[in-house]
């Protein structure tokens, strides 16, 4: 909608009011005033519909509305003169009467051309052709690269991925009749941009309840061309969350706004920046919960604008745009699109039923989307039951937050029991943190007795029902795909729902014992109830640094615990002593969210994990294994992510195969101090999958790899110093998948590669191979080769010799999703 559309409606309304006053008070003008009232009342509804349509009209239509606006503005000024004229001035009254007659003629002539009818037809056509906005954002590597310059943590030298996937909704800005509201995302963008462009920096806010689309609007502003031009592409988007690591975020922001990357310490809050800002800059802080956090993350720098996105009103009202729920017709359109794949109720289906169900969502975009998706392809009888459940869930208080949790719970009733439990498991992970798919699948395999393929299907089903957001990765779901560097995210309101449902009942009897956010210590309620055993199968703890004394009040017994997730932010961490009582523990996840790897104390506790099957260590120092007698005899899967290996794999002091006799899956990813693997790793006769990836210093592999008789998957991608593969690799009897992509210094494959009779797939993107592989024609099981276009020729002879072989000259598609915030 153009500005002219808006003012035409405003002027018409004011002109009507004044004409009514003239009709009532100035009898000499009564007849002509009443005729004008009739004219304007006839066109007023049409003007209003155009005004509130939210549609951007083409320029020629805007010009036509502009002509009407000018005419009405002249009429408004004329009526003001009529109302202020004195009765004794007969000449002036006669002049004004003639001008009012001319005004009547001008408006009549305008209406004869039926211009408003054509404009309204255009409005309807444009609205019919405009799709409801869903967030199916697939950020390409090129787009990500554009942001890397503003995503480098000062001092740490580590790129931080801070792109939270936006919730899939359409936004609305509305108010009461007096506030002259407009509909659509463009109106919200226009209002926020006006605040951005009118000042010289400072704080601007976007406020609204959870799930209403604040982040979507912020992301649209980030991508808006006018915003990018205004700030000369100097934009930074960061997610703060309820439990932020403020010092890390603060250092990141300071490096961006000041240009002084790596400065330590960051200046005090009240320090006036003395530098010269060459360009305007925009910092978008998404999901800010407290004013305290906001104060810590803002700097007094001229030219820097900070856009604060929050559920609370943290910025003064005149600088805040309030995002509210959808209007009834827009809400119904969005709901129908999710439930039926079209924006209207299909013929033969009860429109009343659909309107009632959509109405129970109270215009909240996220609730409309999830509820609509849960009822997709369901019969009307099922809808009746869903409607009754939604109606019963209406809480006593009118807050949207509470209402949403009850309504969302009804949406879960469509899930089978196992899938519902898997959804609730998502509450075990910190807010606004990406959840590694590998961790989720390992959990579900162990606690719900699922096969890996079934666990993945459950993940996809939850994504399709919009109960989580599955990261877009071209490798996801393909044969031999890895999951440790692929992530899922979940909207805050959905996580709140999982927590709400999991935290019902007395703390000791809950199946999941979860901390909703990061705290300095465990909840006091846990300690007060420690005289009774806890029934929890999943325990999730989220703290800062924990010393031995911090655990002293929590002597808890977990006889049924099978999964323990420890999230913390510190450079040192004492493992909780009550782990020794978790005799049934199968999955242990230890994740340090700090900026540097943490030292784990009391690693000797691991000796008690006789049933442990899956171990995930992230951003910690791996204990020196040669100094321990720990033997994890049932450990099936171990993942070391962003860890410091140190001397853990000292070749002379430790026999890996003895420590982990049943290990089938070993992943070492982004461990930058790993130089070589111990030869004893080749004694792991049960090893099925070996992934050594993104380890830039790894220069060689053990010579006796041929002993890995069970190995089917070997991933070595992005090992930059790896110059050759041992010829023994060609003796692996069961190898099916070889990934050497991004090993840029690897110049060739072993000549005897043709001996790998079971090899099915090779990924060698960004490998500069120039020699043809003569023995490769013997790879009779080979089905798929992925390589760069300029080296595809080396496979031409193999392609002719091996039936069904696909040579894929693929584009670079490697993701940076492994980076956490």
Automatic annotation (TrEMBL):
InterPro entries: Apaf_helical (IPR042197), LRR_dom_sf (IPR032675), NB-ARC (IPR002182), P-loop_NTPase (IPR027417), Powdery_mildew-R_dom (IPR008808), WH-like_DNA-bd_sf (IPR036388). GO terms for molecular function: ATP binding. GO terms for biological process: defense response. Keywords: ATP-binding, Leucine-rich repeat, Nucleotide-binding, Plant defense, Repeat. Residues 1-149 form the RPW8 domain. Pfam families: NB-ARC (PF00931), RPW8 (PF05659). It comes from the Eukaryota. Gene3D superfamilies: Helical domain of apoptotic protease-activating factors, P-loop containing nucleotide triphosphate hydrolases, Ribonuclease Inhibitor, Winged helix-like DNA-binding domain superfamily/Winged helix DNA-binding domain. Coiled coil: none annotated. Belongs to the disease resistance NB-LRR family. This is RPW8 domain-containing protein. It comes from Eruca vesicaria subsp. sativa.
